[in-house]
Each structure stands twice: as structure tokens, then as C-alpha cells.
Amino acid sequence: MTEEKSMREQLDEDKLQEKLEEEQKAEVKKSAEKVKRWYIVHTYSGYENKVKVNLEKMIENQNLGDRIFRVEVPQKTVTQIKGGKKTEKEEKVFPGYVLVEMIMDEETWYVVRHTTGVAKFVGSAKRPIPAKDSEIKKIINRSSSQTQKVELDVKVGDKVKITSGPFAEFIADIIETYPDKAKLRANVSIFGRETPVELEYKQIQKL
What we know:
By secondary structure, the protein is an alpha+beta fold. It has helices spanning 2-33, 48-61, 106-113, 133-143, and strands at residues 36-43, 68-72, 75-82, 85-92, 97-103, 118-121, 146-151, 159-162, 171-178, 183-190, 193-200, 204-206. The protein is elongated and about 105 Å long.
């Protein structure tokens, strides 16, 4: 009888220990979820700024400022030179995505996930994956940079004047264009022979 009782007590102690361990794990998980992290939210095309505005309104209306801290749509300033005219415009660094710095819990997940224009969190459907700080730093750094994009209305067969570089003042015939790189290939006549050269848009002037 004593032996049977001791076995029962041992089983009870084992169950109690398991229960304590489960409670500790739950507490660790709960505390981990209270950490402020960056999450990447996938939006419908063209809805990035609308998501930012709508989510910021929800944060204010529901007093969630202590759990959802920042909503960012990373953008960079691009200088365009087209037809000799210089203009500046904002371009999205990360099209189709919004960055949200938040403490993840059931309520904040629900508010962000059900904001108009949001498709999903990056990660699994039930458990969004926080972004690495190094990734966010790269994106933020890119958004603070300024780039220059030169746009020219040129096509294969057009004649252009080269304005800088080793072939300055030469007239060239365009044979290929690479608008995404703002570059082109053209034939230049050197000593009576057609020589293909690669040029940047900023090196030429349309005739």
C-alpha cells in the first residue's frame, strides 16, 4: 500500500512538474510577444499609402499607440531629366509592402490584418515572422538616398550627338536602347569604320 501510494505521489509530482514547465513556456512565449519588432505587411497593388493612412487612423481611434508604433512606406527621391528639364518625384523602394513596428498580440494582429488594402503579413497565416533589424536598416537607408534617372525619348535609328567622354562631339546612330539602365549602344564612325560604343543617356543629346 505504501509503495502504491509513493508511485501515485511520484506520478502526481511528475504531472505537477510538467504543468509548471508548460506554464513557464507559455510565460516566455507571452513575454516574447511583448517585444517591439518590425513586421512586413503585403498590400494590394497601389494601396501602400492608403494602408498607412487607414492604419494610422485605426491606431488613433483605438488607442493602440502603445503597441503599434510606426507605419512606414519606404520611398526615395528620384531626379528625372527628360527633354532637358529636371523634375523630382518620390518612388517606392519596396512596392507592394508596408513596414509596421509593433508589439504582436491578438488585437494588434487583427487590426493590421483587417486594415483595408492589406493582403497578409509576411510569414505564415497564423504566425507572422518579424523582419531582421539588418533588413529594415537596409530598406530605411535606401529610402533616405537620392538617385538620378535620365529619361530620353530616343529609339533605334535615331541620330544623337555625344556630349561627354572619349567620343564627345561625335555623331552616333542608335542601334540598341536600355531604358531601365538609362543606357544605349550606338555606332560611331571612326576613320571611316562603324564602331559600336555604349553610352549613358546623360552623355548624349538628341538631334
